[in-house]
Amino acid sequence: MLNQIRGLHHMTSLAADAAENNAFFTNVLGLRRVKKTVNFDAPDVYHLYYGDEVGTPGSVMTYFPFPNIARGSKGTGEVGETVFSVPPGALGFWQDRLASFDVQGLELQEHFGEKRLAFKNPDGEAFALSEVADNPRSGWTGNGVSDDHAIRGFHSAGMRLKDDGAMAELLGFMGYQKLDSVGNITRFAIGEGTGANTIDLEILPTVRQAGQGAGSVHHIAFSVDDRAAQLAVRKALMDTGYAVTPVIDRDYFWAIYFQTPGGVLFEIATNEPGFDRDEDTAHLGQALKLPSQHEHLRAALEKNLQPIPA
């Protein structure tokens, strides 16, 4: 069993409109945009990162907004829900706030004994806010949300699968332990780490495979401390039979990827070097930062990328 995984690092999804996506996560959810860059493989598409003040691992939601991409179809083999952590007593504030922005899918729920508020973003992607007591993580308060209500990073992610056997085995190998089951959902958690330590597996044996598009999670990333830990994880996964990519430099972390038996793309990302490697903390996410191999395209990209606020 691996002991290097520290919980969630980030989630990366697809969107149809960069400006709309930026407005939702900053103006509505009150997160900070910590990086404005481009997709390594498609530099004419933004890669936008939202999180806490510095983009702490376990807080960062990232997006590839492909202009006018068709909406994805929900199903199995995907991350079906991303859940953020908020302080106890904050759900009333968030219900009023999200309603004032005409956010769709609002529903107060109880899930594994936790109070939460479900909602959808403009692309139909499923989210929830879950009240968590004694959460030491700090929220970002720069967009009109007070510290009493601010999002404190991720709480969990929910995967939708036809069968959970292989995924449960993989999560166990990664250091997760089964906590509980309610109906067709089983909860797994890992120990100390980023604070984003929970995974729910929802089993839907008769539901068709999901189709990716706007509103789909592209991949889910798990945290390791550094490159040495990442290499140890990579070797262990490959020894177990997984086809894992070489280490890829993503400027703000190093990444490896592998496809899981349930169809969800997993990433293992380092906590180093962080989002302040090319911008000071006070100005994170303001300037367009380009991977070195795309710097020669700056003039064209700045001319053609959809304008979004600095």
From TrEMBL:
Signal peptide: none annotated. Transmembrane segments: none annotated. Residues 7-132, 153-271 form the VOC domain. PROSITE patterns: VOC. Coiled coil: none annotated. InterPro entries: Extradiol_RC_dioxygenase (IPR052537), Glyas_Fos-R_dOase_dom (IPR004360), VOC_core (IPR037523). It comes from the Bacteria. PANTHER family: RING-CLEAVING DIOXYGENASE MHQE-RELATED. This is VOC family protein. It comes from Roseobacter insulae.
